[in-house]
UniProtKB/TrEMBL annotation:
The keyword Transmembrane does not apply. SMART domains: CUB (SM00042), PTX (SM00159). Disulfide bonds join C88-C105. Residues 35-143 form the CUB domain. Residues 148-339 form the Pentraxin (PTX) domain. Residues 1-17 form the signal peptide. Pfam families: CUB, Pentaxin. This is G-protein coupled receptor 126-like. PROSITE patterns: CUB, PTX_2. The lineage of its organism: Eukaryota, Metazoa, Chordata, Craniata, Vertebrata. SUPFAM superfamilies: Concanavalin A-like lectins/glucanases, Spermadhesin, CUB domain. Keywords: Disulfide bond, Repeat, Signal.
Amino acid sequence: HLVFCVVFLLPSSEVFLKLMNVPSPAVLCCSPSSCVLVLTENQGAFTSPCYPQIYPNSQACRWTMQAPAGFIIQLSFLDFDLEEAPGCIYDRVLVNTGKADVKFCGPTANGLTLNSTGNVMELSFNSDFSVQKRGFSVSFRHVAVALRNQKVTISHGNQVTQVSGSVSIPTLTHLTLCFELERTGNKKKEWIFTYSDSSNNVALSLGSEKSGMKMIVDGVECPIDSILSSANFTSTMKPFCVLWTSSNGHVAAYFNGNYSAKSCSASSGHSVPGGGQFKLGGQHSFNGNIYNLRLWDYAMTLPQLNALSCDTVGNVIDWDNNHWSIQSSIAQTDTSLSCSEYREDSLK
């Protein structure tokens, strides 16, 4: 093992060595253990090399924390003291939360807690050739994530998000389907969801093609561009509801507090067959993220739509872990989601 020993310097000496690009003497005696690790335990702790003694020069450490699907990593800085510099150009800790890289130096991270957006978080530590400090001590734990705290990417290669096989979808002669959607890209053809019957025929779907927005019901294409268009889906997460009634063939859309309906007479008398498979996207999947998709076996009235809250449970499909089969790599924790437990205004 390498052993590092200290020679204490006055602050002015440290500055001189830094300016002259001269390595400072190594640090307090210790034998640092490996600091490139993958950590899969459900809780634990780790420190910078030699902590609580000052850390050695020229360190390049990386701790990768991994949790099972359905969990995030919660990281807490118990103690933090690194060399301070503008932009953390000398010694630094970099935390990758899954969505962003966050850089720390000086005392800035002390007492801070961070959550990952997925089930992996990485912490890197680098020190340069001079000026050592006490370093850091962190703890981490796995936190189970309810689906209500996560949005899901619709278009993601071969990864398919679908309703769990334990959910039984009945035959539907009227329905209300609500979801929240944000766009990350544009396509000429884009489908938000697809429900296929046991023969793999499209029984219910919503999306757009060159001819405009349409809703497919039991194989019948209902053009709905006059009440809902692809331009209504933007980069901001917004709620939408679509409704259908077999008895009169009416299709309706509800968003921004407005209700619009039109007739699709060809769908009158049809029904959406039960026992099929519901999935996000379609042959040409929408580029973006979806949240809080719920399905009811009745067409809501306008007063019911106005009173609908984000936590109203769908009686056929609900935005709940038990209702969906989702790969963890395409689910993102987002504290701004309307029904997130971590939303700031819900914590007050």
